[in-house]
Please model this.
Amino acid sequence: MTKLIQITEVGPRDGFQNIQDPIPTTLKMNIIDNLVAAGIKHLEITSMVSPKAIPQMADAREVIKHVLHTHPQITPYVLVPNVKGAQLAADNHITHVNYVISVSPLHNQANINRTHQQSLDDLYSIRQNLPELDITLSLATVFGCPFIGATDVNVMLDIIKFADEHGIGKITLCDTIGVATPLQTLRILRVIQQAFPSIDVGLHMHNTHGMALASMAAGLQSGITRFETAVGGLGGCPFAPGAAGNAATEDAVNMFNRMGFDSAISLEGVLRVSALIKETIDPNLLSSLSRARTYSEFNFDSAHAMPDNDHGSIKYGK
Amino acid sequence: MTKLIQITEVGPRDGFQNIQDPIPTTLKMNIIDNLVAAGIKHLEITSMVSPKAIPQMADAREVIKHVLHTHPQITPYVLVPNVKGAQLAADNHITHVNYVISVSPLHNQANINRTHQQSLDDLYSIRQNLPELDITLSLATVFGCPFIGATDVNVMLDIIKFADEHGIGKITLCDTIGVATPLQTLRILRVIQQAFPSIDVGLHMHNTHGMALASMAAGLQSGITRFETAVGGLGGCPFAPGAAGNAATEDAVNMFNRMGFDSAISLEGVLRVSALIKETIDPNLLSSLSRARTYSEFNFDSAHAMPDNDHGSIKYGK
Model:
């Protein structure tokens, strides 16, 4: 039996946001169109933030309009850091937002200029004022913070508790600086799943230290089936110039496919988008599959004595 | 309790072998010296092959002489593909060899110009003629072959059986083209461990598809604690130009350290070797840590409620 995976493509937000030069809005639209053509159904298309803070996202309204008009069948997500962003997203007919709070208070302050209390107050207001808005809570710096190192698991649990009590059933654990290990991922997931057994947990890993897929595989072992990735491995963080960015969509799709999971995304389609990005935005993409032969003509698991998708007692997925 | 890991550095063989331009022998020696200074105790320093086939290894004797003379405290390994190579290694006072057979018959033919029978005959002769030689059997294309795709697990088991019957207690599973998934790794290890419970199994992964660390973490879960890696992520295969090479030593050391294992290798020391290689051999190293901030000033696992090295019931290592 094939097990389903949900991949949310975050390249147009997390990826583009880290590109210094302005990307023409038409190129962004073209890339989004090609991602949708590759089978992407969940797509973080932009963020509602101050254009002064992040000029690359200044065309948010145009991007939203294009996606809602051209791709009514997909679910576009918009990242919002506060009440104002959520209201603007809703005003622009967005139904799904990712609301971000950083577990590290220092990073929350640096990243979105808010204390934890202010962030939680905003979340409360959004819940009250926009009850029909589908909110996923994106928790930044769960696995480490560039300022303080380890973040406090109890603070994380308190934030999740607040969300849970206010009807937010989805959280995404973000490895903002890309340092998570598979063991750390297993342990943090276990703590959350024990405390909040019914909450829907997703993973948003970065590949800064090369462990993104390893931690995502650990996530699969813990029953996680929702992952955020960026085509080409775009993204990253300003603290690590030259380092790898988000877990790459093509690398994740390849791993999931090879492990018997189905993301309903075409690897070839995603690789075409990677090639387009390489040509137009960043010639030095660090995703593995954009540099390697895919060997997709082979089924490496079909060898004698290794029947396809027979996971046996090895548990991955739900 | 800290668990021990053995890393065998294969950069001077698997890495250098894939560099087109000749590397000066003195630079090779310098790199080896720095690897030893970083704490590397197991080191595949060269291969005994025809200099016509692999000109980069033509200085094998000089490299061996240097290592035996300068670093009597480490264990140097030499890769050998046949009787002649093993004899030459022994003649040059080498005590440990990695003898390579490819599970794919086509790859064995292309790589070392031998049928399986010829390779096994040679292994038998080496065992007879050089009984004091410590032989590790390196099995190439265990996880996939560039010519035929999946390789036959039963052929692999037959080769291991032959080795086992002839007193070879160590095998290294090599993902020659870098396509293994963590699930595939768990499954192949389980098959081998069930058939040969007392054999010492190591892993030699390539990062072509970005899953090297993921598969090594799966290896840890299966009790594997011996890994071959290459500084800087050097290596790779001629079938994937531009793609990532071997699992990078620095990335592996970082992951192991972070997961509470001890390789007795200095991450900073390995990173100095990476920097030297970047400067002198390949400016575009793809290892993660050579591109990223290490954050080694932090202990990311020290957060409240996540005590250090408390693996709990999550099993990694032996």
Q: What stands out?
A: The two ends of chain A are 12 Å apart (CA to CA). The CA atoms of residues 303 and 309 of chain A lie 12 Å apart. Residues 116-129 of chain A form the longest helix (14 residues). The mean pLDDT of chain A is 94.
